[in-house]
Amino acid sequence: MSKQNKIPPIRISSEDHKHKCFDVIADLPIDGDYLVSFKSIKETRTSAQNRLRWLWMGFLERELAGEGVGRNKEDWNRYFKGKFLRGILISQDEEYAQFYNQADALIYDAPMKDFAKTMLLDNVRTEWLTSKNMSVFMDAIDKHCSFELRVQLPLPSDLKWLCEDGKWIR
Fold this sequence. Notes:
Blueprint lengths: L14 H12 L20 H17 L9 H20 L2 H15 L3 H11 L7 H17 L14 E3 L2 E3 L1
Antiparallel strand pairs: 1-2
Helix pairs in contact: 2-3, 3-4, 3-6, 4-5
């Protein structure tokens, strides 16, 4: 099979998808060797969750600019990662506890602690969150904004978000 006829990866998430995969394999001409492999797809935050997060960060930048806060959207993102991500990531996977223990030790020994904290928060990623835990993160941001900052964050209807029992769901 030439590179132009390369078969793209096939996501199997239903019986129908599985049968389509079998059909693709059955239709392969035996004109060479093929390698078929399977791997689980790690569920991570969704692009809709990410878009909403950045919409919120931009909203906070504009909404609180005259309140003496002076954070841009990247600063707001860093602020919320510092406030909420540690507990969420550790609850998701205990290996993050070791990551944070090592990071704490580095920050403790750093001559410029604020700079070290900023570097850590810039390198902690929401991509590490499952979509469920990204919802927990988004819920924490929304509650913090509502109760602490007294700001109501926008919910664009095109992202089709619902709030149920105080939790963001997709």
